[in-house]
Amino acid sequence: MKKKVVIGLFILAFMLFSINGEFRDSVGSTVNFGWFSLVPPVVSIILAFISKDVIISLFFGIFAGGFVLHLADGSVFYAFMQSFLSIVDYTLNSLADPWNAGIILQVLTIGGLIALMTKMGGAKAVANALSKKAKGPISAQVITWILGVLLFFDDYANSLIVGPVMRPVTDEKKVSREKLSFIVDATAAPIAGIALISTWVGYEVGLIKDGYEAIGQEVNAYSIFVETIPYRFYNILMLVFVLCTAVFLKEFGPMLTAERRARKYDQENKDEINPSVVNEIDEMEPAEGVHLSIWNAIVPIGTLIVVAIVGFYANGYHAILAGENSMLIDLLKESPYSFTAIQEAFGASDASIVLFQAALLASLVAMAMGVAQKTFTWGQAVETWINGMKSLIITGAILLLAWSLSEIITDLGTAQFLVSLLSDSMPAFLLPSVIFILGSIISFATGTSYGTMGILMPLTIPLAAALSPDPEFIVISAGAVLTGAIFGDHCSPISDTTILSSMGAGVNHMEHVRTQLPYAIVVGMITVLFGFLPVGLGLPIGLVLPVSMIVIILVVYFFGKSVEEKK
Fold first, then answer.
1. 225-284 pLDDT tens trace
2. CA 257 to CA 298: how far, in whole Å?
3. Of 138, 140, 195, 361, which one has the greatest count of Cβ atoms within 10 A?
4. Can you say how many angstroms the Cα of residue 389 is from the centroid of all Cα atoms in its chain?
5. Residue 515 in this model has a pLDDT that exceeds 60
6. What Rg do the C-alpha atoms of the chain give, in angstroms?
7. Among candidates 442, 440, 448, which has minimal Cα distance to 403?
């Protein structure tokens, strides 16, 4: 009851605040929302932490954005009515976007694939096999980390596959669902963002190329991208941080509580120990009498991965040939299988379409295997597949609302307003740190790394070139954009990969956010203090990166507390 009152008062305060707002500039013709552009993400994030219900939070965030947007054009009553209509409009527009539709279909299809593997006993067989390798909570977490790193080519595929596969193993070894979802999330966007070949590369390289063209320089954008990797401190340090917490079995903050609770877990007290995960996405139990075989998981998942990799190349290959870039066209015709050609093709591919196609084909393979083994009939296979899709409908709904919020934030000019706060001059050495911090804030508030990169990169490269003639300084600043954007993608409650990671691990979404946020903040602070500030002052990366990694290790070892409580 108290929670509902707080939410109601919060919404009322927002409306009163908005009514008194002035949105137009001095001329009176151009809408400038200023600080009011922050209302939608602030409302969503605050309500998410208050209510622990991400759907309600996103709903009211979109409503708040619509209210602010339309208040500039009419009365309070008009704005109130239009804000409800905005929810429908933005949701429909999000679903109509081919990329978003592909992601929704991909998520649902992979859910169906997981259900098929479950009924065939593949998931349990893998879990049993990994359980033999995983002798305890340390090895269980390390194996999860390794699987996450191996699925480097796409963050969505990582989030959707690693969690469900490793969940039975980590449950058996009494690793909390919160920690599982954190490991999955920390090896999704952070690794995909720095992988030499992934679905991210093309977008990142394209932004770098455009940024350098803005200052009149023609460069090998991919080479610049590779040069930024050592400066992607947050990505690298987060991967090191996860591994250290697993090996040392030391945690702090809410994660420590979750891990100690998990160590006490048994069937007798499961409701008391972890009520957030009583309702599972799926039960991971095979059909009765099924012979357990890891091949019932390896073949479908292998099909998904192989088809995805081949599909990325083929889709990107045809996209480039259909384009107007003569240099890339010549490259693919002359050396179609060179490393450069492959990475360019990967970058140009449409990941949403390719992964949906790969998941659909993998599902058909799983169905055929199950029918051949007489695990189920074709009719039962389709029914199982659909039931698996049903388990992720809630994920699809959350993604749609998150995308809708991102769209209304764009219309309000939230990111541009935050960037404008940097319009005053500053010392050159501070620029990488400030860019990282600003990128983190924008991506956390908007839930999108791509959007953050797209806004900051065209501004950062010209600004860096104006502040310093050193080419390496521009590379450092570009790296700050790319890694700062990852921060929000990793830990924002409205980020799609954050949502997918919690769903895949079978944990309450806000519990996932609450437990991993302190870790993200700590790594972010170390990124600034021991990463971007030193390199901004001119210290060599060969010294800065190892030192920052040592700092991460020391922080976990000395500030973390042992999960295993002394009796």
1. 888 999 999 999 999 999 999 999 999 999 999 999 988 865 444 543 444 443 444 444
2. 35
3. 140
4. 21
5. yes
6. 24
7. 448
Q: Facing residues of 24 across strands?
A: 31
Q: Which one-letter amino acid corresponds to residue 246?
A: A
Intra-chain end-to-end CA distance of the chain, in Å: 39
Grouping H, G, I as helix, E, B as strand and the rest as coil, residue 242 is helix
Rounded Cα distance between 446 and 179, Å, is: 24
Determine the Cα–Cα distance for residues 482 and 501; give it in Å rounded to an integer.
21
The answer to whether the beta carbons of residues 533 and 224 sit under 8 Å apart is no
The H or E element that residue 28 is part of is none
Output the CA–CA distances (angstroms, integers) from residue 103 to 262, 295, 472, in the order listed: 33, 27, 37
CB neighbour list of residue 115: distance below 8 Å, 6 or more residues apart: 282, 384, 385, 387, 388, 389, 391
Model-level pTM? 0.71
Domain boundaries, the chain: 2-96, 99-207+252-395
> What are the tokens at 548?
């920052």
Task: Assess contact for 284 and 127: CB atoms under 8 A.
Answer: yes
CB burial string 338-370: b at 16+ within 10 A, e below:
eeebbbbbbbbbbbbbbbbbbbbbbbbbbbebb
Would you call 506 helix, strand, or coil by DSSP?
coil
φ/ψ of residue 157, rounded to 5: -60, -40
Among 20-24, 125-129, 220-224, 543-547, the range of highest mean pLDDT: 543-547
